[in-house]
Amino acid sequence: MPERVHTFQGQNFHKLRRACLRRGALFKDPLFPTTAQSLFYKREPPPGLTWRRPREICKDPRLFVDGISTRDLHQGSLGNCWMVAAISCLASEPSLWKKVIPDHMDQEWNPKNLNLYAGIFHFRFWRLGRWLDVVVDDRLPVSRDGALLFCRSATPREFWSALLEKAYAKLNGCYEALEGGNTAEALIDFTGGVSEPLSLDRKALTRHCEQRRAFFQTLAKAHERKALITCSIRSVESVLDCGLVRGHAYGITAVRKVRLGETLQKNGEVCRLFMVRMRNPWGTTDWTGAWSQGSQQWQQMSRAEREKTGLIVRDVGEFWMDFQDFCHYFTDVVVCRLVERTLLWPRSHWREEREQGGWEAQVDKRSRCGGCINHRDTFLHNPQFMFEVTGKEEEMLICLQQEDRRIWRKDGGGENLPIGFEVLKVEVNRSSRVHVTLRGTLAPGGYVVLPTTFLPGTTGRFLLRLFSHSCIRLRCMFELTDFRSGGLVQLHIHYHMNDTIRTRVFKAEGNPEFNLRAIFYRRRPNTHISIELWSRGLLWDSVLGGARLKTAESEKSRSHVVDLRRGQSRSGHRGCVYVETSSSVCLTDL
């Protein structure tokens, strides 16, 4: 099911192109001009820098030369290997790059009819749940020696990578805003997928063969399902003795388990290799260890045997590594899993639900930016979203994404917020809280997701995405004013008919804090405690919703989010109330 595409900054590519062709003039983008502000926000442009159109750089420019491949990208003078590595992964999958570079044949130069060229291109990026169409002109920054200053292709007359980088720079404010980023962010921007960062336990993976093989199978399965994978070595940028670069992003272009031929068998026994093929965005092969270019391992294999096993190098900058060496050096892996939004999907694929929201500051207690769970007084003032797992256990993938603030870097801001979320289990007769970072298996029941910033009062926008294999609906929980309860509400808590505690009456607005404490003596520990939300009227009172709470025989400060309902239907949901319970056979413990 194709998703709607939105124009970025109100620029419609087709209208602008037609206007330029009518005037017989090449497009000049007024929103991303050829000035220093489009290049940098801190440093000055290098001496001799000029902006040139592709026809001023070479005689026969093309968007693509012999198609598109990972060898088309070489990082320029920007520290944006994170972006270049992501684009390298993108280039290996036609169904993905054709989304980012739409109508690629129509955008190509037509040497037989140059009058149809208007000097305008457009590219698409996924931001906070929407595909944005970004328009750019073809004027590119060129250094004093006549070479492109930033990203360039190995073929001098090919310009798709340079123009794509320009569009991404425009989306983020300027070229310098692309320095120092996260490959996981770029993969999401280019695919709309879900990036799952994996931190490697190098000691365990190096020492324990079974753990290493299990992790290899995880990567192999992800690669087989067209996931995009990158890796890096944590720490500041520096070169290791083996040739790998710390703080630098590499793309993983193949994951293979191969059976060696007779020439490499050990003592006549069948030997299997677990191999990964890497690509350096710089277009150079740095690795000097086993299976590096010219190593003795390759010299023992014939060309035919390499092709038979698939151990071939396709592009400049690619190299192979044994997986044990990979686990020894690399510390971080990012797997970007792709999700198709279709009406019909295989059971093995993820199905997505998404909700947009924001942390909003207000002058009263209805503020929606309560901070993380460390701030218990305000934590429940965050936006809340509910879903239910029915039937059997369900593997879930939950992703919280904030609005990218990189575009504000040139104004002195641009730092992303520290964010997270808590998943609270609503059903009262099970575990009260499940902490989930990204992936987990949840038992049947109701759950509430609370996206949070670290500190209360921090504002921003976010996108919450929930992935499951079955049909699970994610819905926003609204404040009491949406329940039209009649204006006044009161909470009743009772153990049996003659033992009831009532709160004072509250106005049905915002999130009332009942702050009620009560002690009940339970003769039978298995008996439930009932909680009811009542509407107070002039003539009579009525029950809005209720729930039953079951506590353990001995517990201390156990948290519950109790789902208040009227009836069994989904429309009967009336909200949630936060309850903390303690239970003991000794009264002084309470």
UniProtKB/TrEMBL annotation:
Active-site positions on this chain: C81, H248, N280
InterPro entries tied to this protein: C2_domain_sf, Calpain_cysteine_protease, Calpain_domain_III, Calpain_III, Calpain_III_sf, Papain-like_cys_pep_sf, Pept_cys_AS, Peptidase_C2_calpain_cat
Gene3D superfamilies linked to this entry: 2.60.120.380, C2 domain, Cysteine proteinases
Gene Ontology cellular-component terms listed: cytoplasm
Annotated SMART domains: calpain_III, CysPc
Similarity remark: Belongs to the peptidase C2 family.
Protein name: Si:dkey-19b23.13
Organism: Labrus bergylta (ballan wrasse)
